[in-house]
Amino acid sequence: MLLRDSLTADELKYCGYMTYRTYQKLGTQAGYVAGANILDIGKISVDSALIVNDVRILADAFRCVHNELVIHDDLKADGIHPDGSFSEWHSLTLDVVCSSQFLIRSPRPA
């Protein structure tokens, strides 16, 4: 994003294309679009929105990320649990360090 002005028109077009392909995965209910992967896909989607100047993509990416950043009470749910643990990959419990990284890596509104 910092080098945007130094990109050729073709380079910028392809950067937009590649990041938009990632954005298209949000909301597809694919098995890998859960937990921390939503944060990664959301961050790339924010990049896509900035590259192609599309506020709709930006708002949608933030919506998906913020919908994922909730406490999940269900023991088998992917995400952050009330005790600070984090489950992903169908309830593989990770420790509090992973949970804090999950929150730190999430995009923040300006």
Strand order of the largest sheet: 1-2-3
**Structural class computed from helices and strand pairing:** mainly alpha
Instruction: Indicate the mean pLDDT.
Output: 75
Count of individual helical segments? 4
Q: How far apart lie the N and C ends? A: 16 Å
Low-confidence runs: none
Number of DSSP strands?
Answer: 3
What is the gyration radius calculated from CA atoms?
15 Å
Percentage of residues assigned to helices: 40-55%
Strand content: 5-15%
The main sheet comes to: 3 strands, antiparallel
Q: Count the domains.
A: 2
Overall geometry: elongated
Order of helices and strands: HHHEEEH
Walk me through this protein's architecture:
The protein is mainly alpha-helical. The protein folds into 2 domains: 1-69; 71-105, no CATH class. It is 50% helix and 7% strand. The chain is built from 4 helices and 3 strands. It has helices at 9-23, 36-52, 55-68, 96-104, and strands at residues 79-80, 86-88, 92-94. The protein has a 3-stranded antiparallel beta sheet, covered by helices on one side. A hairpin with a 5-residue loop joins strand 1 (79-80) and strand 2 (86-88). Helix 1 (9-23) packs antiparallel against helix 2 and helix 2 packs antiparallel against helix 3. The longest helix has 17 residues, at 36-52. The chain starts with 8 loop residues before the first helix and ends in a 6-residue tail after the last helix.
